[in-house]
Amino acid sequence: EDKVVQSPLSLVVHEGDTVTLNCSYEVTNFRSLLWYKQEKKAPTFLFMLTSSGIEKKSGRLSSILDKKELSSILNITATQTGDSAIYLCAVSGTASKLTFGTGTRLQVTL
Amino acid sequence: DSGVTQTPKHLITATGQRVTLRCSPRSGDLSVYWYQQSLDQGLQFLIQYYNGEERAKGNILERFSAQQFPDLHSELNLSSLELGDSALYFCASSVSGTAGNTIYFGEGSWLTVV
Asked: How far is the alpha carbon of A88 from chain B, nearest alpha carbon, in Å?
């Protein structure tokens, strides 16, 4: 069965800090890894990674996939209070469904 | 706004009852997914439909069932409800039913069973 493990479970940082969130996975016939941000309700899509070593970037957020290590990191630089959320990592394999990790809860304080 | 619409937003019902959650996918999306999110278990995949047919099944209880209609909207039926069924139920959609697609989530239906 596909499995996704995220770390840390929870993180509290000061505004302006840089954070790195980790995601490791076990999946049959890996196709893609996705990052989502969940604030109040619906997870919102951040990145989809399919190739190893390629960095996807959007503003202060970036992510890299390491297919050899079966892992991915999500970096957030110059954090803001609006970055406070649960960050979810998900993978898809042979089946089209996404398997999610339990998420990393990030709190950014002033 | 992802374009995925779910109703109702909130629902409170008693144990033993039956409820139906409704989902309209994004325009053009053929695939619909249902996920359950509870505090202790994260997002759990329930079931996927593609163009009206069941495509994949996850940890969906026998008391739960779903279908996708010709107009592509989907319904999740939950019966003989138990306290432990209280959770946020998400519908998501994607263009195709194949792996590697981005899926977009609705706002969720919050079910409380009392």
From this structure: 9
CA B107, CA B114: separation in Å to the nearest integer? 22
On whether any CB of chain A is under 8 Å from the CB of B30, the answer is no
Question: What residue type is assigned to position B68 of the chain?
Answer: Q
Please name the member of B31, B48, B99 whose beta carbon is closest to the beta carbon of A31: B99
The string of pLDDT tens digits covering residues B34-83 is 999 987 678 999 999 999 999 989 889 999 999 999 999 999 999 999 99
User: If phi over 0 gives left and psi between -120 and 50 gives alpha, with beta otherwise, what is residue A30?
Assistant: beta
Q: Which residues of A touch B102 (CB under 8 A)?
A: 34, 45, 48
Torsion of CA B85, B21, B42, B40, to 10 degrees: -20
**pLDDT tens readout for residues A32-50:** 999 999 998 889 999 999 8
Tell me whether the omega of the peptide bond preceding residue B25 falls within 30 degrees of 0, making it cis: no
- Strand order of the β-sheet with A61-66 is A3-7, A19-26, A71-76, A61-66, A55-58
Size of interface A-B (CB pairs under 8 A): 67
